[in-house]
Amino acid sequence: MPESLRHPCQSCGACCAFFRVEFNTSENLPSEFCEGAAPGKQIMRGTGAKHKPSCVALLGRVGQRVTCGIYEQRSSTCRKFAASYENGQKNPRCDEARARHGLAPLSKEHWREYVAAQSTALGL
Questions:
Q1: What does the alpha-carbon distance between residue 94 and residue 101 come to, in Å, rounded to a whole number?
Q2: pTM for this predicted structure
Q3: Is the pLDDT reported for residue 123 higher than 80?
Q4: Residue 82 near residue 94, CB atoms below 8 Å
Q5: How far apart are CA 96 and CA 106, in angstroms?
């Protein structure tokens, strides 16, 4: 797949290797990817590490090419996290994670280029 057709998050993954991902135990995630936290809570295995946290479901290399090994089953925490300007608004937490990995913040231009490439590929 050409780089311009890949969602900007698929060449990033910084949030998956920076933040603790905590969610309710009622969410139906594969147990091998989870570990206990506070009562009624779980975290994605690997995201609770003090140094160099990284979700065990993250596949690939941060800043190059990544994917989520359980994307369709990912937690609500992950589903709710939007990349900067993905929904038209800056997300300082996205920028913080990207900076930690030496990546520039996403801009509105990243999304314009991605949408234009998708439209072209679909013949719109």
A1: 11
A2: 0.87
A3: no
A4: yes
A5: 11
Residue 30 CB partners (closer than 8 Å, separation 6+) = 70, 73
Separation between Cα atoms, residue 93 and residue 99, nearest integer Å? 10
Which single residue is written with the structure tokens 């160099």?
A: 52
Q: Which residues pair with 67 in a beta bridge?
A: 59
The DSSP 8-state label assigned to residue 75 in this structure reads -
User: What's the Cα-to-Cα distance from 46 to each of 30, 40, 55, 56, rounded to whole Å?
Assistant: 14, 19, 5, 6
Residue in the structure block whose two tokens are 């009624």: 40
**pLDDT for 5:** 67
How far is it, in rounded angstroms, from Cα 97 to Cα 84?
11
Q: Map tokens 């590490």 to a residue.
A: 49
The residues, ordered by sequence, that sit 6+ positions from 62 with a Cβ below 8 Å of its Cβ are 12, 13, 14, 16, 17, 54, 101
